[in-house]
Amino acid sequence: MASAIATHGHTGSLPDAPSTASRKAIIGVSVGNLLEWYDFGVYGFFAITMGKNFFAAGDPVASLLASFAVFGIGFVARPLGGFVMGFVADKRGRRSAMMITIMLMALGTLLIGIAPTYATAGVLAPLILVAARLLQGFATGGEWGTAAAFCVEWAPSGRRGLYGAMQQSTGLFGIVVGSTVAAVLSTLFSNAQIDEWGWRIPFLLGALIGPIGFWIRRTIAETPAFEAANKMPQAHHAMQWGPALRLFCLMAVTFAVTYTYLYYLPTFTQKFGGLTRAESLWANVIAVTAFCVGVPFGGLLSDRVGRKPVLLVSNLLILLLSYPLMAAIVKYQSFAATLSIQVLLNLFFALFAGAATVAYVEMFPTIIRLRWLSPTYNLAGVAFGAFAPYIATWLVVATGSPTSAVYFVLFSCVLATLALVGMRETAHEPLR
Fold this sequence. Notes:
By secondary structure, the protein is mainly alpha-helical. It contains 21 helices and no strands. It starts with a helix and ends in an 11-residue tail after the last helix.
């Protein structure tokens, strides 16, 4: 251990070649991460149906806005979850924190799957839905940062970008699974059947993550970086307000793009792109799959050329091309055009996301990493992700222009550009 510390810094980073233990750890956390993000995200693919079932009948736009508002409520508990579980992860270990979060997520998902509808229980129905989303939000708040740190801290020298990208890729692959389930159900059953009882199926399936994910995470080892840092004398660490502010601004793109392009677009393409519900969901499945495949390349590229160049280029691509591409979806009104545009947008974002995860983790020292990374990440989630579908829907209604849905994404790109200007390159430095 002493030689490792001398070579790679006080956190005891792994050697140049990945070991069997590191591969097992990454596979274990990735599977659990996939299952947990499936649970949190599947709600977004049934937003229209959830609005019909959990809110009073009337204006369909009002019920959709209410449904997206409850989607956003899931983010309200995320900063608290990030704060609490960040301390758990820094004190008790990354593995322990991830075992807790996956069980909490399963419980919240089960509550949604068995919740009574408004027609059955009246106002009690949306209250149960809100409680379940808050529980899911608390779990998700502790999950992302812990899983990201876990992957990066297990990475061999020179591969932190790739390993961090695997966390991002598998988490978003959970969205692919959720979107696939939604698309299959929309293909097999009528809209009436989905609205009546079919919407419960993906939530009940998601509740299975509890025993499966808990067992998977019990079998993996704690990160060598955390164990080494925990054995060292605890030095005083300066407050991390500067890195936290930079992280907050960079996360604007991560959240605004994720929850506009990966969650809101199926609704957008149904309403303004001329696609059926099944077509919009299948297009999303293919596009997000392209994202998941592209993310590791973004991480690998950041290991070669640095985090900052990859983040800058991909952010500018999103900033400059989002509006014309969204306008093209509205103009061409075809499955082929919409699919091509969604894939392209997701590939731009994949480059950003692949480099971003490791860059975020590298901003903070190991021993206090999660108590800064997780709360900041989740506060940004409230600001830029929680109500992104709601804001996109409101912008369209307020302006009368479907393409106005992209304005929030463009604003987030501007913030990220400002944050990147003074960002320090960390790709070739030891993990602190």
